Amino acid sequence: MNTSEVAKLLGVSSSTIQRWVKQLELPMEKNERGHYHFSSKDIQQLKEIHEKLQTGTLLHEISPVGEKRSIRKGTIKAVENDQVMEKLIGKVKELELSLHAKADSVASYQLLQHRREIEELQDQVKNLTQQVEHLQSKLNELTPPLLPEKPLVFDQTKAKRKKKNFMSSLLGFL
Description:
The protein is an all-alpha fold and 174 residues long. Helices cover 59% and strands 2% of the residues. It has five helices and two strands.
């Protein structure tokens, strides 16, 4: 049985079963995915623990009923997996170093390229400034300085308005 099935059988949660196994260091088998797999003997042991807890015994006072089994399933391949993991970790580190070196060289190239572009733009701005100054000086040579004009004065006299006929003002809305 798996953990959830045993938990339903005993009327407790799956996490409670897992806590009992861990805290009491019960020698339960695990499958290749690391999930507990309970035999009928294991279930009987868990039932006894459950009964002791129901009678008021504290969990840390309970000692495991059966003897510990020597090796859990899935732990035999640990040495092989460790060697493979070490090789993979080494390869990942090599790739990371290579990636960082490449990124550094790309960033350096881009910085140099940007610096060249900025210098070219600065040269163009200097040339344009010189051309504007040159054109301004030629313009000043060609045009004489302007004399101030006389201020415009508007005629302050009132214009005579034509008076409307009395009849046209009355009938102006037509």
